[in-house]
Amino acid sequence: MPTYSYECTECTNRFDVVQAFTDDALTTCEKCSGRLRKLFNSVGVVFKGSGFYRTDSRESGEKSNSSSNGSSKSDSGSSSGSSDKSNSSSAPAVATAPS
């Protein structure tokens, strides 16, 4: 069950309560009967592994770009579109004028 933080708007009393998702939010302070507000904190995220952001996000970005380019090129010609797809995986495709 998650832990929620509350703060009284009148006496600034702060406390944490373990509540289920289905439980109603607390509304009155136990010390002064003032109005409570729920506090929201930032979540600490830790990425573990070698090069998580640098390698993984760039690979997914290049794949999405090459697939969108490949689909537009395959509309113009079926044989040239398939050869452009194989070249785009190893190096960027270079547009050439038809001879």
Automatic annotation (TrEMBL):
Pfam families for the chain: Zn_ribbon_8
- Give the start-end ranges of region Disordered: 52-99
Comp. bias regions, Low complexity? 63-99
Q: Which InterPro entries match?
A: Regulatory_FmdB_Zinc_ribbon
Please report the stretch or stretches of sequence annotated as the Putative regulatory protein FmdB zinc ribbon domain.
1-41
Superkingdom of origin organism: Bacteria
Name the NCBIfam families on file.
CxxC_CxxC_SSSS (TIGR02605)
Protein name per its UniProtKB record: Putative regulatory protein FmdB zinc ribbon domain-containing protein
